[in-house]
Amino acid sequence: MTIGKGTDVNLARTTWRKSSYSNAEGGACVEVAPGIPGVVPVRDSKVTAGPVLTPSASA
């Protein structure tokens, strides 16, 4: 995956953390991948192979 100004990041080896706002019933589950400089990757934990949003860390 390319983020920012052409920076390549391999999210396949990233450790994802489920948001504390996710519930145990399987709804509204969001995961974040901390530790990537400049961005905070976010994905739907129910669709791990789906798209990843990469807002800037300052957002």
What can you see in these coordinates?
The protein has 59 residues and is mainly beta. It has one domain (1-59). It is 0% helix and 20% strand. It is built from no helices and five strands. It has strands spanning 2-3, 7-8, 17-18, 30-32, 42-44. A three-stranded antiparallel beta sheet has the order 3-4-5, with no helix packed on it. It has a two-stranded antiparallel ribbon with strand order 1-2. The radius of gyration is 12 Å and the shape is globular.
In short:
This protein has 59 residues and is mainly beta. The protein has strands at residues 2-3, 7-8, 17-18, 30-32, 42-44.
Q: Outline the low-pLDDT stretches.
A: none
Structure classification: mainly beta
Continuous helix count: 0
- Report the portion of residues in β strands: 15-25%
Number of domains: 1
Helix percent band: under 10%
Radius of gyration: 12 Å
Q: Report the strand count.
A: 5
Spatial gap, N to C terminus: 20 Å
Name the helix and strand elements from N-terminus to C-terminus, one letter apiece: EEEEE
Largest sheet: 3 strands, antiparallel
Identify the overall geometry. Answer: globular
The overall pLDDT average reads: 78
Strand order, biggest sheet?
A: 3-4-5
